[in-house]
C-alpha cells in the first residue's frame, strides 16, 4: 500500500540518478510486548530481559581507524595538505570511507533491531532519549569525545525508528537516567565490581548493558512514538 509521492532526476558527476519517494500511512497498532535498545561504543544490545537479548558489535573501531589515517596525513603535512591535490584527495577518501562505514552500519542496525523485536514477539521498541547526551561532552577526554561523535547515536536511532515504522512497529523514547546502574530487581544503586559488571546488595548482578535494557524496557508506556515524524527518504534505503 505504498504510494508514489514524487520523483526527481539528479545529475551528478556525469551520471543520472532517479530518486523516487514513496509514502505509506501509519497503521494503528495495539502495543503488545516491547524490547529496549542500549547503544554504546562497543556494541548495541537489544532485548526484553536478562535471558532474551541480542548483542550487535559496532564498527566504531573501523571508523576510528579511517579517520585516524586522515588526521595523520593532516599532521604530517600541516600546510601542504590544503593545497596539494594528491594529499587532499587521499584525506577526503579516508574521511569519506569512515562516514560510509558508519552510515552502512546504522542502516543495517535498523533492520536487525526490528528483526530481533519481531523474533521476541514485540511490536514496541524503546530507545533512549538522548537530549542530554551532548551537555557534558566537554568534560570527557578528547579520545572518548571523538569516539562519541563518530558513533552517531542519533543516526543509529533514526534508522531504527525508520525501519520500525516501515514494518508497523511502535517507537517510544524513555529517560535513560541511571538505567545502567540501578538494580532492575530492587531499584537500588549497583556497584561496579569488575569492568562493566555490576552487583547489587540484594544479590543480583549482571553487565551494565543487560541491566540497561531491563531498566529501559520498564520505563515509559506502550504508546505511539513521541519523536517527530520522519521526513521522506528514498524507498530503497
From TrEMBL:
GO terms for molecular function: DNA binding. Residues 153-216 form the Cas12f1-like TNB domain. Keywords: DNA-binding. Transmembrane segments: none annotated. It comes from the Archaea. InterPro entries: Cas12f1-like_TNB, RNA-guided_DNA_endo/Transpos. PANTHER family: TRANSPOSASE, TRANSPOSASE-RELATED. This is IS200/IS605 family element transposase accessory protein TnpB. It comes from Sulfurisphaera tokodaii.
Amino acid at each position: 500500500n505504498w504510494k508514489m509521492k514524487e520523483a526527481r532526476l539528479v545529475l551528478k558527476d556525469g551520471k543520472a540518478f532517479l530518486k523516487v519517494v514513496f509514502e505509506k500511512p501509519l497503521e494503528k497498532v495495539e502495543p503488545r510486548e516491547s524490547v529496549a535498545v542500549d547503544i554504546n561504543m562497543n556494541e548495541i544490545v537489544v532485548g526484553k530481559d536478562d535471558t532474551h537479548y541480542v548483542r550487535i558489535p559496532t564498527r566504531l573501531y573501523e571508523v576510528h581507524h579511517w579517520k585516524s589515517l586522515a588526521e595523520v596525513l593532516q599532521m604530517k603535512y600541516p600546510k601542504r595538505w590544503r593545497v596539494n591535490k594528491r594529499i587532499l584527495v587521499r584525506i577526503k577518501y579516508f574521511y569519506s570511507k569512515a562516514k560510509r562505514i558508519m552510515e552502512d552500519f546504522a542502516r543495517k542496525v535498523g533492520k536487525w533491531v526490528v528483526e530481533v523485536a519481531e523474533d521476541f514477539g514485540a511490536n514496541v521498541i524503546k530507545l533512549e532519549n538522548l537530549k542530554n547526551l551532548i551537555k557534558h561532552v566537554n568534560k570527557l577526554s578528547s579520545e572518548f569525545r571523538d569516539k562519541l561523535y563518530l558513533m552517531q547515536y542519533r543516526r543509529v536511532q533514526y534508522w531504527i525508528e525508520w525501519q520500525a515504522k516501515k514494518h508497523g512497529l511502535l517507537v517510544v523514547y524513555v529517560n535513560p537516567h541511571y538505567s545502567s546502574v540501578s538494580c532492575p530487581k530492587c531499584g537500588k544503586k549497583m556497584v561496579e565490581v569488575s569492568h562493566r559488571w555490576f552487583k547489587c546488595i540484594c544479590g543480583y548482578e549482571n553487565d551494565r548493558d543487560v541491566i540497561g535494557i531491563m531498566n529501559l524496557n520498564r520505563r515509559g508506556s506502550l504508546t505511539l512514538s513521541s519523536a517527530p515524524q520522519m521526513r521522506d527518504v528514498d524507498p530503497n534505503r
